[in-house]
Amino acid sequence: MTDLGLESAFTKFPAMLTLSAESFFLVKGKKGGYQLLSAICPHSHGDIRKADNCFTCPSHGWHFSLDNGECINGPLARMYSAPVVVKNGHLVVEGELP
Ligand code: FES
């Protein structure tokens, strides 16, 4: 289990986080649920960055949705993800980090 901190501390999404020396994005979906997305590209492990309207991997140009990490310009793929729940006002990843 990983406690990401108080839900109220996150006011802008996606929020970039570093956990165990790895980079992640905390995103909030259109229906309000949270996910933690890995910044490691599912294609060939490039470093995903946030662009203006999407996440992007400069290695081969895949783009991903800011809402849920789904690939929006290529194959049926998505960023590695883990669900985030709210527990006692904190955002928590109950399983393994993505
Ligand atoms: S490694 Fe990210 S698109 Fe290829």
Walkthrough of the structure:
The chain has strands spanning 2-6, 15-19, 22-28, 34-38, 49-50, 55-56, 63-64, 81-87, 90-93. It has 98 residues and is mostly beta strands. Helix content is 0%, strand content 40%. It has one domain (2-93): Rieske Iron-sulfur Protein, CATH 2.102.10.10. 24% of the residues are buried. It binds FE2/S2 (inorganic) cluster.
State the CATH class.
Mainly Beta
CATH superfamily: Rieske [2Fe-2S] iron-sulphur domain
CATH topology: Rieske Iron-sulfur Protein
- Low-pLDDT ranges: none
End-to-end C-alpha gap: 12 Å
The average pLDDT is 96
Order of helices and strands: EEEEEEEEE
Query: Architecture, according to CATH?
Result: 3-layer Sandwich
Sequence of strands across the biggest β-sheet: 1-9-8-4-3-2
Spatial shape:
globular
* Overall domain count: 1
Rg over alpha carbons? 13 Å
* Total helical segments: 0
The helix/strand class is mainly beta
- Please state roughly what percent of the residues sit in beta strands, choosing from under 5%, 5-15%, 15-25%, 25-35%, 35-45% or over 45%: 35-45%
Number of strands: 9
Ligand roster: FE2/S2 (inorganic) cluster
Summed up, what is this model?
With 98 residues, the protein is mainly beta.
Features:
mainly beta, 3-stranded antiparallel β-sheet, Rieske Iron-sulfur Protein, binds FE2/S2 (inorganic) cluster, 6-stranded antiparallel β-sheet, globular
